[in-house]
Design goal:
nine-stranded mixed sheet; mainly beta; 5% helix; Immunoglobulin-like; 43% strand; 28 strands
C-alpha cells in the first residue's frame, strides 16, 4: 500500500503487513536498515494518520521482530501527547527515552497496543543499535507542513539515519558591478564551507521522508543548525534491489546549536514532601517520613537539614528505601525542638533528569507551641497543643 501522505520516519500502521510493505515489489534484495534508534538517545516523532489515534494513557509499547514476537517491552520509555490536528483527526506525538539495549542489526518494529480496545499500530522496520555510522536529524516547522500540524504539536521531530559527511567544499559568492567611470569591478568573495552528506544505501521509504524533512524551516544535524543548499536526488537503482545511493549538500551555522533533552516527558519534580508545615513537639513526625516524586527515582543524594532562621547546617539526613517514585528520610537522630527548619536534596530520575531542591522556602517545617488547648478547640481547625 502506497502512502504518499504520512512522511513520518516512524510511520504507524494498523496492519503489520502494511507496516512491512515494500514499494519495489520486484526486489530480490531488500534493504530496510536506514532508520536507526541509538539506544542512548531520545527520539520524537509525530503521527499523520488518516484515522484518529487515541490511547488515553492506556497503552503498551513493545519492540517486536519480523514475526511479531515481543523482543522488549519499552512502555516505561515511551511518552505520548494526543492532539487534534487541523483536519479534526486525533494524532499522537510520541517520545522514546533511551532504550539502553543494543540489538545490533536485527530488524525490529515498534508495536503500540491500546489496552482498552483492539487498536494496534506497527511502525516501519528500524534498527536499535549504536553500531552504525549515522547522523542525527532534528527538524521542525512553524505551521502546518506535509500533513503535520506543527502549530499544535509544537515539537521538534528527531531520528538517526545511516549516512556520513563525505567532503567539505568552498562556496563563494561575489558581485560584479560597474563604476561611474565604466570600470568593471568584482567584490571580495564571500566564502562559506559546504558539506556533502552521502548515503550509500537508501530505500524509497526513507528517501521520501528525508527529502521532506530537509525542506523544513528548522533543521539541525548532530545538534548544529543546517541550511540545505541541495536536496537529495535519487541515483540509479542497484540491480534487483530496493536501494540506491543519494546525497545532499548544505552549510552549518555553528553558532546555532540545539540540545533538546525531553520534550514530552514531564520535568522531574516533587509531588509530596514530609514533614511540611507547623508541628508541636507532640505532633512532629520525628521518625521516618516518605517523600514522593512524579517519576521513578534512580538516585537520591545530599539530603541536608538546615536551620531556617540563620541557614546554619545541622546535619546530613539519613535516607533509604527508594521504591519507584518515593524515598524515606529519617529525622529521629536529630532530637529537634522548637525552631524553624528546612531540607534540601538532589534527585535523579530513571531518565537521568536532575532535580536539585535548594529553595529554603519549599521543604520547610517548624516546631512550636500550639496556639490553643486541644481540649477546648478542634485540632483540625486550630493549631493546638
Amino acid at each position: 500500500m502506497i502512502d504518499n501522505l504520512d512522511k513520518s520516519f516512524l510511520r504507524l500502521k494498523t496492519s503489520f503487513a502494511d507496516a512491512k510493505f515494500e514499494l519495489l515489489q520486484d526486489s530480490e534484495f531488500v534493504y530496510r536498515e536506514n532508520i536507526v534508534l541509538n539506544p542512548n538517545n531520545i527520539y520524537t516523532q509525530i503521527s499523520n494518520s488518516l484515522t484518529s489515534i487515541a490511547f488515553d494513557d492506556s497503552y503498551i509499547v513493545e519492540l517486536v521482530d519480523c514475526a511479531d514476537n515481543v523482543v522488549l517491552d519499552i512502555t516505561d520509555k515511551v511518552f505520548i501527547n494526543e492532539f487534534q490536528d487541523h483536519k479534526g483527526i486525533y494524532q499522537i506525538a510520541f517520545e522514546i527515552a533511551p532504550i539502553q539495549e543494543d540489538f545490533y542489526f536485527e530488524r525490529l518494529f515498534l508495536r503500540f497496543t491500546h489496552l482498552d480496545s483492539d487498536l494496534k499500530l506497527w511502525s516501519n522496520p528500524i534498527l536499535v543499535t549504536e553500531q552504525c555510522k549515522t547522523f542525527r536529524l532534528e527538524y521542525k516547522n512553524y505551521s502546518y507542513y506535509q500533513g503535520i500540524s506543527y502549530e499544535i504539536a509544537n515539537i521538534y521531530q528527531s531520528i538517526d539515519l545511516v549516512g556520513y559527511i563525505n567532503l567539505p567544499s568552498t562556496k563563494e559568492t561575489t558581485k560584479i558591478y560597474t563604476q561611474l567611470n565604466g570600470d568593471i569591478r568584482q567584490s571580495r568573495p564571500i566564502q562559506a564551507i559546504e558539506y556533502l552528506f552521502n548515503i550509500d544505501f537508501i530505500d524509497s521509504f526513507t528517501f521520501t521522508r528525508l527529502s521532506t524533512a530537509l525542506n523544513s524551516e528548522l533543521i539541525y544535524i548532530n545538534g548544529i543548525r543546517f541550511i540545505k543548499s541541495e536536496n537529495v536526488q535519487s541515483d540509479e537503482r542497484q540491480g534487483k534491489s530496493n536501494y540506491f545511493t543519494t546525497s545532499f549538500k548544505g552549510q552549518f551555522n555553528e553558532t546555532d546549536t540545539l540540545d533538546l533533552g525531553y520534550q514530552i516527558l514531564p520535568a522531574f519534580t516533587y509531588v509530596t514532601l514530609n514533614p511540611l508545615g507547623m508541628f508541636t513537639t507532640v505532633t512532629f513526625p520525628s521518625g521516618v517520613n516518605t517523600d514522593t516524586m512524579n517519576l521513578k527515582i534512580k538516585s537520591i543524594s545530599n539530603v541536608k537539614l538546615w536551620n531556617f532562621t540563620n541557614d546554619a547546617f545541622i546535619g546530613n539526613v539519613p535516607f533509604n528505601s527508594i521504591i519507584n517514585n518515593s524515598f524515606n528520610i529519617d529525622l529521629s537522630s536529630f532530637g529537634l525542638s522548637f525552631g524553624e527548619y528546612y531540607i534540601t536534596f538532589d534527585a535523579v530520575s530513571i531518565y537521568n533528569q536532575i532535580f536539585n531542591l535548594t529553595d529554603k522556602n519549599i521543604y520547610k517545617f517548624s516546631i512550636q507551641n500550639g496556639h490553643y488547648n486541644n481540649t477546648q478547640y478542634n485540632n483540625l481547625q486550630y493549631f493546638t497543643d
